[in-house]
# Entry
Amino acid sequence: MDREENKLSAAEPAEQNPPDENQAVSAAEQSDPASGEAPEQHMSDSEVMKHTASLWRYRTIIEDGTELHTEYHSKFARTENGSIIGARVRGKKHKHEGTNCDDWFETAEADGCMIAVVADGAGSKQLSRIGARVSCEAAVEYLKTALPEMFRQDEGLRGKLSGDIGGEEFLGACGQFAAVIRGSAERAFDAVITKLKSLYNDEHYISTLGRNPTLADMGSTFLAAVAVPVEVQGEKQRFVVTLQIGDGCICAIDSSADHDNCFRLLGEADSGAFSGETEFLSERMVSEGNIARKIRISRGRSDILMLMSDGVADDYFPAQPMMKRLYLDLCLNGIIPMAGDCKGNLEPAPLEFPAVTPEQKPVAIQYAKQILREMSDEAVNELWDDRETLRPYSLAAWGKSLGDSPEKRLQCWLDNYNERGSFDDRTLVVMSFDKE
# Structure
């Protein structure tokens, strides 16, 4: 049986193809201007999404003897210096077609350092989800051991991270962290090779692929970050080292700063040989010459660090200024704490669309873009600088909630926010650091 012929969920037969939001038209758009009727009017994004939302169907994945991902994966941990939250959901297109989610993530805390790794498997490869999972798990396990060992061997390392940013000691410490995060990618790639060897002669995988699996079948992106709280001249700051192979986004936000000073991009999306392609974790990409150019090191006041797959990053593109809109959306929906008074509520009300689940129950989400006077860089920046007045627009102000824990709220939001043309798997990890 073809994998796209998998069992349907209870309710209704699935559409043969996913909904095409670009083909949704209103009666106004169908009118003929030459006939003297009202001039052509285009549907708004919310009107298009209302039209297409109920067309998406939910299909379960049939067991075929290969490793399948769970429908959801979410985690939350409170640490000594803040918190780390992450969630991963199957994209609408995967649900509609009954195919696997390709994303994975893992997080951890070790010796006061926050750790996160996100991977997005190549959509055209049937086993990429496995490469994504094992690479995340191996990288985080390595970092959980390597970081405490590095601090043990160099007892003055934290002090060096707090020193003169142009000084020899600070630069030497940067070199140590660059080596460790490079090591995490090497261990991730080794884990993919080891996993491939274990699957190579497995009859289930041979039956699914029609051949023995190869390394290319397990390709995924690789985004990793380590954040270390430091104190610089009595002020709490964060030292961050990141590594990005492939698309997605890693960025830092200072929630106290104005729009000109609040955002920092900490990775660069790689492109493949052709338009629309991206790079994946590979022997070539983890070689010392290639990987050194993909490592970023930063120190500053930013109290939010986010890693995400392209399923989220593409919905909030370009990163500057749209990552500010992402941050505001997380606040408005109760995922990141929000300042301001919650008494009463202000229009516009949250939008409700049917969830892509067997029940198709409507889920309410509030969007910063609803509050914008227009969709422009200037309007996003104005809203950012006015963010302390936004609490009455929030989901909580309207008496609604996405869940009873931070990770459930993030998972529900990822699974249900609507953006025109968005149907990919979504993964987001957010590190929040205490400022006081």
Summary: Residues 1-15, 25-39 have pLDDT under 50 and may be disordered. The two ends are 58 Å apart (CA to CA). The chain is about 30% helix and 20% strand. The domain at 72-316+420-433 is CATH 3.60.40.10 (Phosphatase 2c; domain 1).
